[in-house]
Write a structure and sequence with these properties.
The complex is a heterodimer of chains A (about 500) and B (about 475).
Chain A (H helix, E strand, L loop, with lengths): L19 E5 L8 H5 L33 H5 L5 E5 L1 H5 L7 H13 L21 E3 L9 H4 L6 E2 L10 E2 L3 E3 L9 H13 L4 E2 L16 E6 L7 H6 L2 E5 L10 E3 L6 H7 L7 E3 L9 H14 L4 E6 L5 H11 L3 E5 L8 E2 H6 L4 H15 L6 E5 L5 H10 L3 E4 L1 H6 L23 H4 L4 H26 L4 H4 L6 E3 L4
Parallel strand pairs in A: 6-16, 7-8, 8-9, 9-12, 12-13, 13-15, 15-16
Antiparallel strand pairs in A: 1-2, 3-17, 4-5, 10-11
Helix pairs in contact in A: 4-16, 6-16, 9-10, 10-12, 13-16
Chain B lengths: L21 E5 L9 H5 L28 H5 L5 E5 L1 H4 L8 H13 L4 E2 L15 E3 L11 H4 L7 E4 L16 E4 L3 E4 L8 H14 L3 E4 L14 E6 L9 H5 L2 E5 L6 H14 L4 E6 L5 H10 L4 E5 L13 H14 L7 E5 L7 H7 L4 E4 L1 H6 L22 H26 L14 E3 H9 L11
Parallel strand pairs in B: 7-8, 7-14, 8-9, 9-10, 10-11, 11-12, 12-13, 13-14
Antiparallel strand pairs in B: 1-2, 4-15, 5-6
Classes of the chains: A alpha/beta (about 500), B alpha/beta (about 475).
Amino acid sequence: MKSIEIRNCESRFRSKIGKYRVTLTDKCFHCGLCVEICPYGVFERAEGFNFVSMPNSAHCEGPDCIEGPYHCTAKCPVEAIKIEIDPQWKTLGDFRWTPDLIITTWKQAETGEIPQDNLEYKIGASGGGFDNFDFKIDHPNTIPSDEIDKIRTSICLNRRSEGPAIEIPVPWYGAGMSFGSISLSSMLARAASAKAWETFTSTGEGGYPDELIPYSNHVITQIATGLFGVQEETIKRARIIEFKYAQGAKPGLGGHLLGDKNTQAVAKKRETVPWTSLFSPFPFHSVYSVEDHKKHIDWVKTINPEALISVKVSTPSDVDMVAVGSYYAGANIINLDGGYGGTGAAPEIAKKNIAMPIEYAITKVHRFLLDEGVRDEIVLMASGGIRTAYDIAKSIALGADGVIMGTSELVALGCVRCGNCESGRGCPRGIATTDSELEEQIDPSWGAQRIINLYSAWQKQLKLLLYQLGLEDIKELRGRTDLLRSTDEK
Amino acid sequence: MYERYHIETSPAKLSSTQIGKFTIIRHEEECLNCGQCISQCIYDVHKRDSNDSRKMAEPVSNLCKNCFSCIQNCPQQALEMVKNKEFEDLGNTYWTPQFIHTIWNEAEEGKIPVYGAGYRGPFKGSGFDKIWTDMSEIVRPTRDGIHGREYIATSVDLGRKLPWIPDFERLNLPNSYEIQIPMLFDTSPLGLNLKSIILAITRAAHQLGTFAFLNIENYFEELKPYLKSIALRCPLDKIKHIDSIPWREVNFIEVVLPEKYLISELEQAIRNLKNQNETALISLGLTGPCLSEEIFKQVQHARVDVLNFYADNYGKSFEGNLFICDALRKLRHDFVKRNMRDEITIIGKGGIAAAEHVPKSIICGADAVVLDLSLLAAMGCQVCKVCQIENCPAELEKLVPETASQRIINMICAWRDQLLEILSAMGIRDVRRLRGELGRAIFYDEIEKESFEFIFFENSLFK
């Protein structure tokens, strides 16, 4: 694999949000001592200026400062420095994506490194599932540089004897997000990062924009119930074709693109009328059995015999049966999408209540496939609420082969999870929008670098984790629930 | 002609409910009035001062949707977003600010709450938040996504059913009434007996084709046109003068059981009621601990049609302090065991604070639920820690009954639509089929044990 360029890639916003707020009160007489002693560059004096500039609060580490807690406040001759928890930090995030997770994901996208500050980057605060367990590592240590290369994180996306073997160097690829739900520049950023990492991204169900053709070796195309933009040539172009039966955030409900986001360009791609609401119904009306499902797969294989078939389903209580049915119908990959997953728009009642969280589904399906004796012929990919490198590792330890990441890629692009993707012009931050003016906020090459960096930070964490667990290959981690423990036991 | 049930919504705004989650603060000493925030905000939070266009006006915080764009692009760091104390102070630990806020929005527009991004809440909680509902990956062709939802029935029958028909010659079926939504109303939430509230709730019930429970002492003349939608409620020991108008005209009478009473006394009361009004359903209000054996006897002997199971506003029932959904499960189980579940209608009241609580209660065994505090919240109630009607921030005393009824109707429309979402995800076309379908729900304790017992076998949960 060619080497991947990690470049520092700053936030596109003028000021960053951090955990602490540093202010200089009126007492400050701009002696500049703080500029000299701060190890993080919170204080600056621009060249030729007598005044200390407005502090870069986001860089401050607060009481965790390596020089000792509140080291600058104590040294300031006139006690002019005030450090407090930024009230804005409290307005950011939620139980699943805590402010710490959002900020550390931004930092990873910026630097490509494992976060070194004291913010919590491994675990959220939802009080269940992934947030309820961690790995049995009692003596965390760092990884010697000569050991890094020995540790492998690649997985194969086809475990059947027939069909092409497609290997990706990291155990994840990008989730389906349609043209219409997100902007073309966000799609391009995702595709370029997938190409750089030799993994995949997915078009979602809104058709295959021509702009993605240069990345076609790394683009999965989706056939969803609405069949928007599904054409023979797009099926021929893709190495992996995904049937979307259901989506975790709105299981059993189908999709709905509101009229405001269905612009001329989107409608053209979807072969529909612009500015009308588009429904992607549930379910596939031509699939009511495993046999029907097989017929669908055969139909795609006739058009593109070399393609791998992925089947995306959500997580009902009989998800194990669905998975095994997909296997017998000929699928190569089964994608379980858990109930707490992301979406461009879904009823709140569905996100919270319908279908089970992914943690349960992975365990259930993995065991059932083992019992059925077919586990090693199908690739189990998990998605829906997987946020961090540690969530990736936990999913694999529970029994998945790999995972599919969506929301965290958008966070890398600057998403704050405000949840306004669906209304009016869409995302005010230019990510999940089709508004030409808002879309301009994202430069695809900047976005690609941010996601490339995030991937790099994740891979470093996985390698470190495998090393700490005494494993050499991510494939050895699969199903190793014995390496997990409840966080209460620590 | 076949008429499809339809709820007519119309926007009904209240100024007292315009409380946003966050407040945007503009620090005037830092602000350069450059107007960068105007171009950043797509929600019109920032505007120039209408009197002096050189200056910025104060940000309109309740339009803010929390995107941070203005804050992160302000060259002076003059803008700040903080949590709105007024919002945080709404309600209590059960009636969370989020529940109240959601009800307000539903009551204002009648629309289902839809947002982007994934679920934000805790993994699981207590009570209703320990249940996930099921979905069906592949369903039969009888329903069709969004367009098929119109054909899903949400009506339920209230009343007794015969286990079999003993005599076809003299067919004497018990009364039953169909309500179009599995939700009944209570006109005295929080024990408030305000005329305007009672009128608003009763009118909404009438318009929606369901029943509203009314304490007999609260009956007044203006309610007369809505008598057919009133469920008259009276404690057993206070039943008298039952030949007056409301007693004779209503279709639903509830006898609330005191802690101690004689069965013969109850039987006598029910006989008298039936003599005066033979078409009304008779319901037993179970407000205290209910000894199951006794209840079964009464259901059989006294020919009760409905059991109404009471819990408090937090969903705690008086039956061993069980949460309402657990209590309903128990009640259902006891009736099923005796092969009597179909002979009675079970409804539950208390702690129904969100749309999802309706299907979850039904899954646990209720035929329908009774809404109380949520109706008040729809009218603008903030569920204060201490309710003082004279200092009510929502000014419930000055309520306009027309607006208030419309807000209730809007909320019910949103709740019914959300019920349809749940049903359609399961592939169920009739809410009656959801009753007691425990197999179509996923219970936290069970699945957590099933999935993770082998990981956490040392964990206290599984000891």
